[in-house]
Amino acid sequence: MAGQWREVPLREIVQIYDGPHATPQKTGSGPVFLGISSLIDGRIDLSNTEHLSEHDYLTWTRRVTPLPGDIVFSYETRLGEAAVIPDGLRCCLGRRMGLLRPRSESVDSRFLLYAYLGPRFQETLRSRAVQGSTVDRILLSELGSFPIELPRDVEEQRAIAHILGTLDDKIELNRRMNETLEEMARAIFKSWFVDFDPVRAKMEGRDTGLPPDLAALFPDRLVDSELGEIPEGWGVRALGECFDLTMGQSPPGSTYNDSGNGTPFFQGSTDFGERYPTNRRYCTEPARLAQTEDTLVSVRAPVGTINRAWERCCIGRGVAAMRHTSGSAVYTYYAIWAAQPEIGQYEHTGTVFGAIGGKQFRALKVLEPPEGTIAAFHHIGQDLDGRIRYNVNESRALAAQRDVLLPRLVSGEIAVNERRT
Question: Burial, 131: exposed, middle or buried (Cβ in 10 Å; 0-12, 13-18, 19+)?
C-alpha cells in the first residue's frame, strides 16, 4: 500500500521567487544567464549557453540566487517547463522565469520537479493560466494557491524520485555520449575537409597521423580556387551538382492530424530536436518526402538549422531534405554542418523573415572532394552515427517508460514498495 499522501497549496511547501524583468548585456564567459530556452524535458540544457559579467550577476541575483535543488520554471511563453538547478551551476534567472525553493527537508527537490511535471499539476497550470493576446502566463501572485500532491514521508518522495531519476539520468548520459560522438565526427570532418590538416602536414614534411591508406588519399599541395585554397585535384561545384535537394511543400491542411495516422510531418525548425525531429503532426497525403537519415535543413528563419530524418517523413515549406550523390548520409550531414555559415547568410533576406529558395540553395558553391576521400569519411562516420542512433533509440524507449510511470507514481497510484524491477 502507498503511504499517506496530502494535497497542499504550493506556498506551504516552497518559497516562490520571481526573476528579473530585464536582460543584461551578454558576455563570452562568466556566470550563466539561464533563459527559458534552456529548460527542455525537465532538465537544464546548456548547449547554447549565454553568460553575463560578474558585476551584472550581482545585480541580477538581488531577488534570488539560484541554488542546487531549487526548481526553476517558466511562467510565460513555455508554460509547464521546469528543471532542478544542479550542483556547480552558477547562474541567474532570465526574464519570465521563476524559482521554487523547498521550505524544509520534508520536501525532496527532485520529487517536487516530477510532481510539477506530472499531468495533474500541469492541468492545474493550464486551467489557471491567464489568457493573453499573444501568450498565456501564470500569475506568480496566485501560483502559491495552486494545489499539489505529495507523500507525507520524504523517504517515499525520494524513492519515487529515484525510480524516475534513474531513467532520466540514463537519458542524460546517452545525450552526453552523443555529444561526444558527434564532436569526434565533426573534428575529423573539419580536419579533413575544412582545415586540410593531412595536406598541410604533407606540405611541411610532417606525419599526417593517418594510416598509410588514408594518408594516400590526400595530395601534398593546396591550390587557389573561388573558395580560397583547396587541396589539389579537389573541385568546387554548385551544391545542386553534388547533392540531391528536395524542397519541402506542405500537404493540404485537411490531411494533418495529431493522432499518429499517416506519415510524420515536419514544417520547420520548431519541429527539430536534438539531432532528430520530434513528431508533432502527421499527414495522410504527403506532398514532399525525405528518406531515413537524410539531412533536414531549415530554409525559413532560422535559416540553416539542421537535423536528420529518423524515418521516412513528409517535409513542409520550411524544410529541405538533402543527400550527397555518393549516397553517404553521414558525409551529407557534416558537409551541411560545415556549410551553415554560407546557408545562414539568407537569414536576413526578405521583408518579413529570412528564407532560402531552391534556386539559391542549389547555386551555393561547395567543395567536392574525390569519391575515395568521401567514402573513407563515410566508413569512419557511419560507425559513430550508428552508436548515436542506438543511444537515441534507447533514450526514446526510456522516455516512454518514464512517461507511463510518472503520472502513476506522482499520484500514488503505484506504491514504490509494490513495484518490482
Answer: exposed
* Sign of the torsion formed by the C-alpha atoms of 31, 32, 34 and 39: negative
CB 71 within 8 Å of CB 82? yes
Assigned C-alpha cell, 239: 551544391
- How many angstroms separate the CA atoms of 292 and 307, rounded? 12
Q: Which amino acid is at 191?
A: S
Confidence band (pLDDT; 50, 70, 90) for 350? low
pLDDT at 419 over 50: no
* Rounded Cα–Cα distance for residues 120 and 393 (Å): 28
H/E stretch holding 235 reads strand 235-238
Q: Tell me, what's the pLDDT at 133? A: 72
The grid cell for 308 is 536528420
Determine contact, residues 177/275, Cβ cutoff 8 Å: no
What distance in Å separates the CA atoms of residue 23 and residue 2, rounded to the nearest whole number?
46
| Residues 377-396 pLDDT 10s | 999 999 999 999 999 999 99
Q: List the one residue out of 341, 355, 360, 339 whose CA is nearest residue 301.
A: 355
Helix (H) or strand (E) holding 377: helix 371-409
**What's the rounded mean pLDDT across residues 258-271?**
90
SS3 for 81?
coil
Q: Looking at per-residue confidence, does 257 or 334 come out higher?
A: 334
388 near 181, Cβ under 8 Å? yes
Bridging pattern class, strands 26-34 and 39-40: unpaired
Q: What pLDDT score does 270 carry?
A: 86
386/181 Cα distance (integer angstroms): 10
What 110-113 contacts at long range (C-beta under 8 Å, 24+ apart), as own/partner pairs, is 110/84, 110/158, 110/161, 110/164, 110/165, 111/150, 111/157, 111/158, 111/160, 111/161, 111/410, 112/13, 112/14, 112/71, 112/150, 113/42, 113/71, 113/82, 113/83, 113/84, 113/161
Cis peptide before 302 (omega within 30 of 0): yes
Give Cα separations from 259 to 71, 182, 283, 284 (angstroms): 33, 33, 10, 11
Choose among 103, 96, 101: nearest CA to 85. 101
